[in-house]
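User: Quick sanity check before I run a bigger batch. Here is a single chain. Can you write out its predicted 3D structure?
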Amino acid sequence: MKFRGKILILLLTLTLVPLLTSLFLQRHAMRQLGNDLANGGREYLLANTRKVLLNLAGEFDETLQRDRALAGLALAHQADRLSRRDGDDEEATRTYKRISDLIPHFHARHYTRYDSGKLETYPATGTPPDPAEAPWPLLSTEVERVMWKILPATDQHPAAILLAKRFTAPQENSRGVTAIEIPLASLFDEMRVPDLWVQETETLVVTRPTDHPDRIEVLLHSSQAASNAGISTIARGKSIEPDNDADRQAFKEALTAEKPAVLEMDWQGEKTFWAMAPREPHRPFPLIILPVDIATAQARKVEASVQEQFDQMLRHSGILLAGILLFVPLVSLLAARSINRPLEALVLGARGLANGNFAIRVKILSRDEFQELGNAFNAVGPQLQERQRMQTGLLLAREIQQQLLPAPDLPFAGLDLYGRNLSCDETGGDYFDFIPLEKGKLAVVVGDVTGHGIAAALLMATARGILRGLMECGRFVPGEILAHLNRQLCRDTEDDRFMTLFFGIVDVANQTLNWASAGQGPVFRYASRTGQVEEIPSTGMPLGILEMADYSSEGPLALSKGDVLVIGTDGLWEATNPSGEMFGIERVQDAIRSHASQPARAIHAALLNACEQFCGHGSQQDDLTLTVVKVVSAEA
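Assistant: Done. Predicted structure follows.
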């Protein structure tokens, strides 16, 4: 992908990601706000609606009971006036009118039936009650009490409450029963709900039948909208109940409790509130039914308002997003041109350096970081050239150092030999040597100079030269050789440079080992007769520390066919795994013991493989030299 494309993607990412993230967070916040407002408002409105409905049911019930009492008093007064009249029909009419004026909101009709069969009606127009429903036969006795009767609606007569009372008079033909008929519809005149609910509220006047007190019978059912217009619907003894069994049970319990209550009921397929103030059987009481959705309409309006604001925000954000999509490519094109030119110069310069042209330079005059980068690039060529010279010198030094070492598997009668030097840098301070001597003897040398790199390699080469020179002079006693080498190193090196060295002579004919060790160890010897791995002790301190140090020769140590000598540097057993644990001497001994029956090369490989598996495949941390000497025959 071209750089300008990456710039475009970067700019789009830097602009769109924050914008889209902001939109997402705002969207989430707005929705959460809308939900919180709607839910909080819904809970508040529901609680407030229950409270208002409970108050309305109580007030409506108080109104009904007040009107009942008022109607009873009016009837008692009417009966009293009729019992004291002297047969004057005009007096009766004035009585009816006076009582009607006292209770104008009842729209009442007055009836009096005398024992003689005469019937008076006020107002004179209208149809008297159905004889089957009239109270005259029930009050034909002399018992003076008020009788209440609910008259169901008929085609000619609206539903009404009929109050009747027997009265007596001095004249026998003036005795009879007087009654007041109050249309149930007039009760709604004072039963009004808040204007916010008026279109959806159902207001009913109901009663509990005496034979089924856990049910209700509708006396009057009116929609508030219709009632406010002067229109009401009268039911003929219709019974209503909630839709499901659980609600029906709760409703029956509320009826029998005879206390004002507000219930949430499923009715006609929707959630509704039923507010009522139940009375004893056969006494009318109010029932108000309001859909729950009407009570929470305001909360839904708030939620819709929030959603509308959110949609408007999305439209504005879409316009902003479109502007960004048009603006960002133009900016990215201009930015890419200002960046590409110095980058192209740097690319051409880098190709020149890769082809070995260390004299190449770039010219960038942008007066910004690219110019600084160009100046830094121009300084790289000479540095790379110098580093190449040093690298070439180090490779040459490594090649020379490797030439100073013997062949890894030097052939020698009676012995199986294998040794290798593995440096962690181009050059190192580890050293090993196989030096054949006369009479079937072999000198085995392993040394380790402190540190690694070119300084350690030079000290190793110096020690090798001194040791070889001593042996050319006919000195073959291990302790004497180490003592002389120590004095030379102390004189020629600084105090912070020293080395450990093992020098041993294997006599194949006599199967013995004589040695001296200047702090080099441990040296491992596998005894084939016992199958055990032993450590050959050191005989003195490292070389180059104390000029007058003494180094004694040890031996002879008897060897047998199958015995194995393993001489290495600490780069083997001090190698660590990623957790910092060292490979350790015990693992070296286990590997020697497990592979002692194999050739020297195989033993050598097994040790290195075990170390590598333990440490993992990380970079080598120290120089490592390992030699294996296995006795295979007593013949020289």
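The first strand starts at residue 109 and ends at 114.

User: Great, the batch can go ahead then.
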